[in-house]
Each structure stands twice: as structure tokens, then as C-alpha cells.
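Hi W.,

Here's what went into the run:
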Amino acid sequence: MKHVAHPPSRASFPVVAVLAGLLATGCGAPPQSASDGDAVDPGRAKIATAPHADWALAIHGGAGVVRSSVSPEEEPAYRASLEAALDLGSGILADGGTALDAVEAVIRTLEDDPLFNAGRGAVFTNEGTNELDAAIMDGSTLACGAVTGVKTVRHPITLARRVMERSPHIFFSGAGAEAFADEAGVERVAPEYFFVQKRYDQWRAVVEGEAAEAQGEPADDAEAQGGEDKHGTVGAVARDTHGNVAAATSTGGLTNKRWGRIGDVPVIGAGTYASNASAAVSCTGIGERFIEHTVARDVTARMEYGGESLQEAAKAEIHEVLEPESGGLIAVGADGSIAIEFNTEGMFHGSGDSTGQRSVGIWQ
Amino acid sequence: MKHVAHPPSRASFPVVAVLAGLLATGCGAPPQSASDGDAVDPGRAKIATAPHADWALAIHGGAGVVRSSVSPEEEPAYRASLEAALDLGSGILADGGTALDAVEAVIRTLEDDPLFNAGRGAVFTNEGTNELDAAIMDGSTLACGAVTGVKTVRHPITLARRVMERSPHIFFSGAGAEAFADEAGVERVAPEYFFVQKRYDQWRAVVEGEAAEAQGEPADDAEAQGGEDKHGTVGAVARDTHGNVAAATSTGGLTNKRWGRIGDVPVIGAGTYASNASAAVSCTGIGERFIEHTVARDVTARMEYGGESLQEAAKAEIHEVLEPESGGLIAVGADGSIAIEFNTEGMFHGSGDSTGQRSVGIWQ
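Here's what came out:
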């Protein structure tokens, strides 16, 4: 169910652990060190009881997956893609690279992979187009960038990073975001680049299923499958050897989405958040539920204001706050601990760190 | 929908909760329940710095205002508009109306008022258009709705409420949001409806100032004024006699904005958030800073997870987390307490409650 790099031992010394947090601040929660969050807060380091890892990485490929949508023949391909993405990010971190570079590189390779609902493999909108969203955040400065509704950008995560680094703003949309892509020298492609037969067939199945339902007929299996498989996303979170964390998330959104619907991915605090004061978090699932509960920020806020451990905060958000079948999240704490939680049948995920921990999985 | 969960660490470590309360002496509130979703929390009532009120309302008209941008002749007009909006919302709440109806009605009247940067008085984009953003949230269910980049909707706040109530989604953008407006029967107007000479002159001053700066010339006063007055927004937060809170925010965004820039207003958790577990919050200022710090959600998270009072949480976010000149916020707690904080020279604001408290102001 969960793949925890280090067994959380804080629960066995709750009083000591929480008192450490209280004494560190005098106010029942660690200080908001976001504005100067370029190092792990010492008070929080006392709270953290998981063994320290010099670097840590966790990735996901979406929580919408169900067994009926992944054939036994396809499963090895998904695992191979996750292993390759882990190898890429782990290599960057092991070589002393930044968390920001690692999560961007991981997302770029997953965006190029037609297996996942992001970049090339993006699902189709109600208009038969592909509209991509992405966000990235640097936990050392709280600087962040996000884009929504881009149709011709090969790597939305790189565009999001350029927005963060080369504009005074954070969040760009649609044609304006694509105009900025040209100014920033971010690669654009023809809309046809995003055509993937499986995604197209899923979209048609959903459209036909809705038409059938509109006529009072029960949705068939194909529609159900397309429907179940609608919530794909890719994400990466990392802690580097310099002590900084970063998070990145990218998606094609919701199959057959309309009305310019924006999900949780580009909403900073909902699907993506990172702060050296606590952790880096990337979410996947039914976006609206993650927006309502600002899930990514809440995991970090529970740690910063409530003195919860990364494991406690991640479990509470996924298994207590959210309803079953909502989705999941990956998180890496400023201390290098890793949390992977989901309340769906499956979530493509993987993790690795400097202690040698390494895992890839799909099902509960 | 499940409400915000009581932090599990507090429920499982009662001894620590008590110790936390003792240690927290001098910096405010002991830990308190965050799970009381539809009634005033006795614990919170004890720590509220304002007396309990059956209903309470706070409104703002933007924190970007500086004395040089409001003439002595104009100030009475701004105050009269704020008084009228307060009268409207207070009447609805005093008659037993809902917080949701009160904040929507207040925002609608401010959207129709050319004095404020929202609806009719929206600032101009780099393309010489007016693009509006708005968000609304129901603290009793965490249901929320938001729209960005709409150009032909008279009352974006009402469109945001329709998105919340009549779609399975939360956040719609651009042409898609306008198509939904037609389906939901929300009034649309010609783009010319949003032409206001003062806003147009401010935009031209900014454009000319940027052109002058590009040529190495210092920006003149007009540009400085246009620049200083760029961050307008309108917002309303309320607690009704049924014990529910709601928040609403609407804006024309940033003068001369480009690249489809989205600010904090429609980003749930940044400019707008509401939960009966804590408070309703609406922010105004330099949107990017409010997105990075998820200010609206952080005020409520400090209360829910850190046991801070509404006043402590609002002061901490505006005066400790944010840098000076970033902006401000208004908030109403589930107990009817009111917080109004800003770190700019001025913020158009007003408040009133069932105890007879009533105030309208602009400057620090």
C-alpha cells in the first residue's frame, strides 16, 4: 500500500517529538521560514525522526489507473518507463544536481512517453484537442511557475520553469502562455504531435458513453474504462544534496474536458507545492477534490503549523480528508524522507534515495 | 463531502495537546477543534479577540491604493460605495440570509461600480482588453467555483457561483468559461461595457512609462501612479446566522497584464478560501506573493493545525510572511470575529456585524 523509505518512529515518542516542535518555536508550530527557506529548519530537523537521506526522489504516473485499463502485456512497459525516469532523476541527484533540475528532467521524459497522460500522451478534450497544464515549485525560495491550456508546447514543465525564472509572474494561460513560450525559446510542436490512438479511442468511448447515457442506455465497459482512466498525471518530487526540495507536476487533464476546465495541477497549493520548511508534494486524482482541500499545501501546512510528520500528514490528507477513489500523492520531506499514499486501486509510482532504497509499483 | 479532518495527531496525543496549550501561553491560542463544521466552536469563541457575533461581514476594494491615486474629491465617493455595499450585505445577513448570498450580492454591486478594479471598472490588459477573474467558496461544504480570463461577463462572481453549483468542476477559463456562462444563463455584455476612461488612462500611462524606461528615460509620475494603482481587487467574507462562512473575490487583474497572466484571485487557497472549521478569507495585492504563500488557505491552516486565533493568523501572514507593500486581506472567523490587515499605504475596506460594530476605512 505505502512504500516508506524509512519507518516512521515519531509515533513512539509523540510527546518528545511535539515538544521539540513547540520548544523550537514557542508557538506550537515551526516558524514560517518560507521567505528565507534556503535550509532545513533546525527546529523541524529535531521533529523529523526518519533517518536522513542526502538525496531522495519520488515519482508518479497518475492515480486514475485501474486493472481493467492496463493489460498484462502493457504493465511491464509502464514499469520500464518508471524505472527509466527514476534512473534519470537519481543520477542527477547522486551527481550533486539540484532538485529542480531532477524533477524537471523526470517530467520531461514522462511528457515524451505516450503511456502517460501528460505531454505526448495527453488525453483529448471535448473539442478533440489536447490542452496541457503543468506546474513547478522551488522549495528553497517558494518561487513557482505554472501554465494551463497550452496546445503546442512539447514540454509544458519546461515552460512552467521559464515562467518561474524569466517572468515576474507565476501562472500563464492559453495563447498567451504559448506566446511567452516563443519569447522564452521553449520548443513548440504541431497539435498532431499529441495524437495517440489509445487516448483517442478512450475519448471516443467516453463521448459515445455520454451519448448513450443521455438516451437512458447504461454506459458500456469501454466507456467505464475510459472514464476510470481519465485522471492521469505525472509528477516528481525531490530533495537534493544541498538540502533543497522541489516539486513538478504535468498533465493532459481530464478526458473530454470542456469549458476551459482547469484542474489541480497548475493550481499552486492544490496539486503542487514545495517548501524547504517542510516538504515537496505532487498530487494526482480527481482535481476538484485536491483544489477544495489544497492538498499539496495542506500536507506541508500540517508539518509546519501542526508539527505532524511527513507520513502523518500524507496519510491524513489521502485517507482521512479525501474520500476513497479520489487519488494520491508523492512527497519528499526536507529531511529526505519519502511518503507515497493513494486511495485508488492503483497509482503508477516509484522512489529511490541515497540510502539505496528503491521501489516501483502500481497497485495497492 | 467530508469536511476538513481534525488533525489526527491532536486526537491521538491529548496530553501533548494540553502541554501545547500551556507552552503556547503568550502566543495565543491552545490547540482547538478544526472539525466543528457547522457551529461556533466554544474553544474558538474563547480565543476570539472580537466578541461573538451572530453575523459578520467584511469587504475590501483593493490594497493597491495610494494617496496620490485618490483625490480628496474622489475619497467620499469610494467611502459611499463601501458603505452601500456594507448596507446591502448586512441587510441580507441580518434578515437570516446565507453568507454565500451576502458575499455574492456585495461583489456584484462592487463589480458594477467603475471605481473598483473588478467588473465594469476592470483595468486594461497589454492588448487593450479587459479580462476578468473571480472566485467564490462555501465554507460549509468547501464547494468552490472560479473563472479566469472572461471578457464579456458582467458579473464574474455570479459565473463563479454557477460553476460551483451547476458543474462538476471548479475552475473554468476564457472562451470555455463564457460558453458555460451562456449554458448557465449568466449575463454577458459587449466588451465596450468595461471601458472606463480613468482605467484606460492608467493603462496608457503604464504603456508609455514602460516605453520610456525601455529608452532609458525615468518613468514619470503618471506612470508611477498607474503602476502603484495596478493591484485592485474587490472581496467580501461573511459569517451568517446559521453558522456558515463564505468568501468571494473578483478582479480585473493587473494593468497591462500579458501572456494570459492569472493572479491569485481565482486560485483557491491563494486569494480566496473559506472553511467553517476556521474562517473565510479574501486577499488583495501583488497576486504572485499570495500564490507562493497560499495566503488565504494559510490563514485558515494556522487556525486549524496551529491553534492560532484569527487575529494571530491574519497578522502573521500579512506582517511576518509577506514583505511590506505586498497587499492585505479581510477575514471573518466561524465565530463571527473579523480581521482586517494590510501592509500597503491603503486598502479600501469596511466591516460590520450583529453587535453593531461598523467601520469603513482606506488608510493605515
